[in-house]
Design a protein that fits this description.
With 125 residues, the chain is α+β, with helices and mostly antiparallel strands. Helices cover 24% and strands 25% of the residues. It has one domain (17-120). 18% of the residues are buried.
Length: 125
């Protein structure tokens, strides 16, 4: 089965078979935002058997008019999504991860910058 994913407008493809060998580069690095919308909050909260309020109070920060999952610091300039499992080097909520995570590495910022996408993700081909 072909594990290469392509998307219109991008000069690169993504080899999903390489995710298992990665150290979770897409979930960790410099501090940033992991945007999550209301529907995604409800979905993740349900997945974790939490109320929306319990989930939001524990895992969300408000950034102006948007919401982001919080991060945990793993080392110097090394932050990860709160749901990153550093023992397994993968997402702990993969089935219900936010759209921002689902669409990586096909983000607008990488559309004209294949080299930056390659630095962020070793599965970019």
């Amino acid at each position: 089965m072909d594990s290469y994913i392509k998307q219109d407008g991008y000069k690169f493809s993504f080899d999903s078979s390489e995710c298992s060998a990665c150290q979770g580069f897409c979930c960790r690095g410099e501090s940033g935002y992991i945007w999550i919308n209301y529907q995604e909050i409800v979905k993740v909260a349900n997945h974790l058997s939490l109320s929306r309020d319990e989930f939001s109070n524990k895992y969300i920060k408000k950034v102006k008019h948007r919401y982001s999952l919080i991060e945990k610091q793993l080392g110097y300039k090394d932050y990860a999504c709160i749901f990153f499992d550093e023992k397994l080097n993968r997402c702990g909520i993969y089935e219900v991860r936010p759209n921002q995570c689902k669409t990586f590495p096909f983000w607008e910022q990488f559309k004209g910058n294949e080299m930056e996408a390659r630095k962020e993700c070793p599965a970019v081909k």
